[in-house]
Amino acid sequence: GAVVSQHPSRVICKSGTSVKIECRSLDFQATTMFWYRQFPKQSLMLMATSNEGSKATYEQGVEKDKFLINHASLTLSTLTVTSAHPEDSSFYICSATDLAGGPGQYFGPGTRLTVT
Amino acid sequence: QKEVEQDPGPLSVPEGAIVSLNCTYSNSAFQYFMWYRQYSRKGPELLMYTYSSGNKEDGRFTAQVDKSSKYISLFIRDSQPSDSATYLCAMSAAGGYQKVTFGTGTKLQVIP
Q: What is the CA radius of gyration of chain B?
């Protein structure tokens, strides 16, 4: 149980374009989803917390107009990187909480974004 | 000072050894303590979580929390090459429902 999927797993885009990453909870309902960014050999950096049906809460320093988050249903949250630049290249990971499964967060497999 | 400190390693041990992984923290509000395992280029996998102080055992894994010392540990018995991964400690004041603070991770290599 508690499986989270992400799509795509890898994406390469040109500078200035937008990229959408999907995060789905497959076997549970996730009222809260989280989006992280991870640089090589560094820990997870929380970007935003997403609650179903409401606006996402962004961490300090994260541009909400650049990283658009939509949590349209209890099983789907999307992250859109708008007007991507090479410095946005990173590993993006989502997670979700399963209220029935305990306090831990369940992570997706991650999306490797490369902006050329 | 970071809220959560974790030695990045790498830590190399022979197969069958007992592995000890540790984190210290400074925020007294933390009540939930978690350990995640992350293989290269994959998302973290929740291994165990504990609430408040005490021990919890699951197979070859034992998690310990000492809130008085603000110190948590993960022990792996009879380590296997498949245990080679990065282990991240994580903690929060209100469980995974709210913000979780992660350590930087300790890279473990179990040598056959």
A: 13
Are A34 and A94 in contact by the 8 Å Cβ rule? The answer is yes
* Residue B101 falls in which region: left (phi positive, over 0), alpha (psi -120 to 50) or beta: beta
Helix H or strand E encompassing B108: strand B106-111
Please tell me which residue of chain A has the smallest CA distance to B91: A104
pLDDT in tens, A5-46: 999 999 999 999 999 999 999 988 888 899 999 987 778 899
Query: Distance from A35 to chain B by nearest Cα, in Å?
Result: 11
- Kindly state whether A104 is in contact with chain B, defined as any CB-CB distance less than 8 angstroms: yes
CA nearest B112: which of B87, B88, B83?
B83
Q: Does B35 touch chain A (CB under 8 A)?
A: no
Q: What is the DSSP string of chain A?
A: ---EEEE-SEEEE-TT--EEEEEEESSS--SEEEEEEE-TTS-EEEEEEEETTSPPEEPTT--TTTEEEEEEETTEEEEEE-S--GGG-EEEEEEEE-TTT-S-EEE---EEEEE-
pLDDT at A32: 87
What would the pLDDT profile of A51-61 be if each residue is shown by its tens digit? 888 889 999 99
